[in-house]
Write a structure and sequence with these properties.
There is one protein chain. This protein is an alpha/beta fold. It has a single domain, classed as Ribonuclease Z/Hydroxyacylglutathione hydrolase-like (Metallo-beta-lactamase, Chain A, 4-Layer Sandwich). The chain is 25% helix and 29% strand. The chain is built from 6 helices and 14 strands. The chain has a 7-stranded mixed beta sheet, with no helix packed on it. Strands 8-9-10-11-14 form a 5-stranded mixed beta sheet, with helices on one face. It has a two-stranded antiparallel sheet with strand order 12-13. Helix 3 links the parallel strand 5 and strand 6. It is globular and about 45 Å long.
Length: 215
């Protein structure tokens, strides 16, 4: 597990995905280490796509117990895409008052992976406040943290080390050019950071990297 503070109240951590195998990595093009987000807003503690690191569970739970006690704010889990329900059931079991927010079109599919408490539509304001944007593929959403000018992506955008890319091979029947045109129009945001589940994050100049990925 690697943990990094990006700004006061904004952290990301990594975990080794327990379902990953070398065969999956070669076939689908993603690494075993994936990323998650901790956001401590004035009104809530928010976890986005949380995965308890199987390689460091005790350390993770100790840190989260400590931070929730210190913050004394309600806990919310936000899920970008159904495959990223990840460790949400374990978090709900440990903190029974957790509210779990899922994109309404994906709710039935996510219910097979984790219990949830709330549904939302893309465009709705969420606790934090966090804003949601439709990713226009696989019922995925992007989350926008205005306080930190940070965009959080599940699978739509991945980090390359020197920027971002749209994973066209993961789009299914969605037309890549039409998707890019739609997102360019909708993501008119002053983006500084882009936090992604797969690959390195963008920690500065995110607007330019998003524009380049959507060209």
């Amino acid at each position: 597990m690697r943990v990094e503070e990006l700004a006061p109240g904004l952290w990301c951590w990594t975990a080794l995905h327990p379902e990953w195998t070398p065969e999956i990595g070669r076939a689908d093009g993603w690494d075993q280490e994936v990323s998650c987000v901790y956001y401590e807003s004035p009104e809530a503690v928010i976890l986005i796509d949380p995965l308890v690191p199987p390689e460091d569970e005790q350390r993770f739970w100790h840190a989260l117990d400590r931070d929730l006690a210190r913050a004394a704010r309600p806990l919310h889990v936000l899920i970008t895409i159904l495959w990223h329900a990840r460790s949400t059931p374990e978090i709900v079991a440990r903190y029974p008052r957790t509210r779990v927010w899922v994109h309404e079109p994906a709710a039935e599919a996510i219910a097979h992976r984790t219990p949830y408490t709330d549904r939302f539509r893309a465009g709705d304001a969420l606790p934090g406040p966090v804003l949601s944007f439709d990713a226009h593929r696989a019922w995925e959403v992007l989350f926008w943290l205005p306080e930190h000018r940070t965009l959080v992506a599940g699978d739509l955008l991945t980090g390359t080390g020197d920027g971002l890319r749209v994973r066209d091979e993961w789009l299914g029947h969605v037309h890549p050019r039409e998707l890019r045109e739609t997102l360019r129009a909708e993501l008119d945001l002053p983006i500084e950071r882009v936090l992604v589940a797969h690959g390195p994050p963008v920690l500065a100049g995110g607007r330019a990297d998003v524009d380049a990925a959507l060209e």
